[in-house]
Amino acid sequence: MSIILKQHIDEISPLTDDEFAFVLSHFTVKKFKKHQYLIQEGDLVQNDYFVVSGLLKSSHTDARGKEHILQFAMENWWISDPQAYHNQTPATLYVNCLEDTETLAITLHNREKLCVEFRKMEYFFRKKTTAGYIAMQKRVLSLIGSDSKERYLQLIEQYPQFRRLPKTMIAAYLGITRETLSRFEAS
After folding, report:
1. Which of 3, 13, 47, 111 could form a disulfide with 120, with the two C-beta atoms 3.0–4.6 Å apart?
2. Ramachandran quadrant class, 175 (left: phi over 0; alpha: psi -120 to 50; beta: rest)
3. Averaged pLDDT, groups of 10, the chain, 187 residues long
4. Beta carbons of 91 and 31 less than 8 angstroms apart
5. Which domains, ranges and CATH numbers included, belong to the chain?
């Protein structure tokens, strides 16, 4: 399980085995079952999760009860409620498992400690956070500037592994109906 995290970190900031052992000591293995919540709205968010195996979604439910999917996370991705995690405020998002999932979790305290004590990890987390902001900006720009078919084609091109998601969730993520998604897949 830990070798996956080492490979992930090494892509940005290569570590020796001893350095990685130190980094890994700041993480905790957490396993979850399909349909289990890691985070629910109102929770205090203790961890950021690196996905070793499995599939998760991050969503928000509006005042009318409609679910809005913000993010999916699968192997080698990170997921949490960033606002609640970094500001230590109650969660505004739900994060739940779409499959049985194994993660490596890091508390904010341990993350900050790693960043202060070990410059390579400060660099790694800065690069990952920046990449996440860029991905979110691209998604928002796509939602406001592309039609639904363009959004679908961009999603499938960028993330072909999303085909393992239920079609209703892909449609919700794209802001379209399941029927519209079926038409795109048929053409």
Report:
1. 13
2. left
3. 92 96 97 98 97 96 90 95 96 97 98 95 96 90 89 87 86 88 82
4. no
5. 2-119 (2.60.120.10)
